[in-house]
Protein: non-specific serine/threonine protein kinase
Organism: Triticum aestivum
Amino acid sequence: MAATPWLLLLCLSLAAGGVLQARAQPDSNGFISIDCGLQGEEGYVDTATKLSYYPDTGFTDGAGTCRNISADYITPSLCKGMYTVRSFPSGPRNCYTLRSLVPGLKYLIRAKFMYGNYDALRQPPIFDLHIGVNHWHTVNITKPHVEKSVEAILVVPDDFVQVCLINTGAGTPFISSLELRPLKKTIYPQVTAAHGLLLSERINFGQIDENNVIRYPGDTYDRIWTPVVSSGTYTEVSTTSKVIPDSLFEVPTTVMQTAMRPRNVSSGMSLSWDPEPQPNNPSPGYIIIMHFSELEFLLFNVTREFSINLNNEPWHPDNIMPKYLYGAAIYNSVPSWKSRYDISIIPTVRATQPPIINAIETYTVVTTTNLGTDSLDVSAIMAIKVKYQVHKNWFGDPCGPETVMVWDRLTCSYATTSPPRIIRLDLSLRGLNGDISSFFTNLKAIQYLNLSNNNLVGSIPDALSQLTSLTVLDLSHNQLNGAIPSRLLKRVEDGSLNLRYGNNRDLCANDNSCRLEPKWKSNLAIYIVVPVVVSMIVVIVVVVLFCSLRRKRQGSMNNSVEPQNEATTSYVPGNNAHRDSFSLHQLESRRFTYEELKIITNNFQRVLGQGGFGYVYDGFLEDDTQVAVKLRSHSSTQGFKEFLAEAHILTWIHHKNLVNLIGYCKDGEYMALVYEYMSEGTLHEHLEGSKHNGGRLSWRQRLRIALDSAQGLEYLHKGCDPPLIHRDVKASNILLNARLEARIADFGLSKTFSGGNDYVSTTTLVGTPGYVDPEYHATMQLTAKSDVYSFGVVLLELVTGKPAVVREAAPINIIHWSRQRMERGNIESVVDARMCGIYDVNSVWKVVEIALKCTACVSPQRPTMTDVVDQLQECIELEEGRTIEVGNNGFYTSGGSDNPDLSYNAYIADQSSDSTTFQTEHGVKRVHSMPTGPATR
Ligand SMILES: *[C@@H]1O[C@H](CO)[C@@H](O)[C@H](O)[C@H]1NC(C)=O
Ligand SMILES: *[C@@H]1O[C@H](CO)[C@@H](O)[C@H](O)[C@H]1NC(C)=O
Ligand SMILES: *[C@@H]1O[C@H](CO)[C@@H](O)[C@H](O)[C@H]1NC(C)=O
Ligand SMILES: *[C@@H]1O[C@H](CO)[C@@H](O)[C@H](O)[C@H]1NC(C)=O
Ligand SMILES: *[C@@H]1O[C@H](CO)[C@@H](O)[C@H](O)[C@H]1NC(C)=O
């Protein structure tokens, strides 16, 4: 299904673009190499890389013009790719579309710009570069002869990616060349769906020839390693032996074979730079990756050992001893934010050899969480664009970035964590010719479609009736003919579609009847009334139950009412003037007598816990199934309503992540609920450390618990009809079974809300301090987003191991506590130290991001539980995608080395250090710091 639109689109484009489009495909390496502005159809083979470069005609939708740079700037050393540019004098955004990619894979994308006074204006422009809908870089061309390169490593979510040039009013955007290289999924672990890296520097130290740039084929990923020649106080070390690359960055052996060291054996080295602020990213976070390998065979009596400081503080907690001919990397996973970077590499007191460094990469982190439009919508609208040849300004992503660049005549809807969808399309009065494209029916989220006042011919596609969201369809003033599809008419009759089709020559409704109005009106009422009645009945079920019991309570507590009597109780609720009778009799679950409960619980012997209604007891059914019995306490003056609400809700909803009700007891004044036994107690107990293996939940277990609970809540919000708001989501209402699977419990406060009204008003504020949505608190209007808020608090508890109200010097809400720390860029300081640093830091980061979104003050900014479930699934993939197995002691060990003598050691994060996490990749031997500390020179 998904592939079809693209297939068709490619065929259409092929027809228009001839043989060129075929070249828009990656080559056998998966590389795409484009020489922008190159005229004609012929590509050429680049002399240095032997890669074929092609003209860009098939990539730009015909936008822009080809220009030559001024002959004054053509020098013998200038590569051919810079001779021509494509400039985009018109339109705010112009894009290159790179197709046939693998969704979810990491790619390196590199754009080059050399102005070369191509327009004879001597005025280099400034413009923005977007990848998809995410801002990457502001390209500030300062000198005509400078070759500027912008390189990004990112995860491409779709099977295509767009590189867009944005005219910001400071000159005409242009581009010289564009390259795309696929990367292995495991390399550059800092790159995730949420964050990409923008290259600052990639330096190969110890080169003798300053022109010896290493790229493809030396580097299989065609990264460009800039040579730095040692001089002054530095000299080079090199080898001709092969250096085995590390597995996370795969630095080519030719880069690792050379290194730089100080001439003076007892000196250190220093590297420094200032952060490069970007207009949209004034304080970029940096990722630093240093590559080391010993290149000299050292005798036993000589030692090369050094430590690394950043701004005079230890950057990596351990001293480094590079291994002979094995590449290794020291890098941070969480970006660091500094006003200046001074790195010093200092020999330790034991060292007899000076430190070395083989290569370094520095990157800034770019957030890539702005999602592009749903890819099916994109392919459909692109096909529509091609078919009707309209709207030359339809370039780039149809919906994004939000509010800035949305395509003309098109409206989108935006969710926090799912891609934007096209919901309105107005192509009226656009001179459309031909039939109604079937691509319209691929816009699955469309609500409003206006194709009126065109020259459309042919019949109305039946598939339009399948667009369930479509409420307005205007086909009037065209030349359509044939019968209106009966299913479309049915939509009109049931009132779910407003169809206009007047002023078409030969169009007629079925049954020779072109008049729809009378039927339409009479059926409308039914359409509205039915769902209301359905939802009312369910509300009444609960209300009636509640009232029947309240009446009983108002009577004598000793006067036990026979259960049978309740069946006839009726109640007239306030404005829902409706009568009906329901009772616990109609519950499907097993009904227990009080005597039975006594036997089951061995006379209420063992207390499992205590809730608002009373105690929860341990029990065993006849078949030895262990159960938990929640008995309403005699002294409990509250909770009739809650108790019954819970009983009722649990009998009509079932989900693997909601606690399972086995039965209930309504025996005289005794009321009890019997649940499946959850042997691991509550999440709260686990986090607090009061239960069993106190607080020792691993990150993976925490993620699973988060996902389970999120799925339970998603079911309440989306899977239940009518939907339910839990209203008291908290760690102590999340129960765990022996396999640590989580189930949501305690539905006593839940409320139904009907799908049409997005909120319900409540008169009493309920919930637990620390978890209550401030918006609900202020407005008393309850929405599903209140649960999302509380769930965000639970997520923060899972990450931090702290309770919802953190009691430090003064009590502080966990959200503020976490935000304060996160604002300092310090994720390590929020993470529960009991996890001993064993986690994929990107997934932790992501969970914190989700939690902070969930706890946004304004509810529309919060994601839905469906979004949260999707995001948590990605976090689990990240965590489970860690390449190295976790040992018991917090260190990673893994075999699989080419050299069986080697066991790899990696080290993650000393929690006490600052904002950076450090990981040593294989090959670096971990050595303990000297008691005296590193020697400073
Ligand atoms: C650019 O230069 C080539 C030959 O070097 C020439 O054929 C072409 O017409 C020039 N293009 C423009 C736009 O001047
Ligand atoms: C562009 O670069 C010049 C020179 O470095 C600088 O003065 C100017 O502020 C920059 N403009 C922008 C918009 O970054
Ligand atoms: C090497 O560096 C040390 C410390 O900076 C200095 O004392 C020594 O004189 C230097 N040796 C040479 C040969 O420059
Ligand atoms: C190490 O031992 C070798 C040979 O045994 C000797 O020539 C060299 O001077 C020693 N080096 C150091 C630093 O002690
Ligand atoms: C469709 O567009 C036409 C022309 O712009 C407009 O007159 C008409 O009201 C629109 N139809 C609907 C249902 O909005």
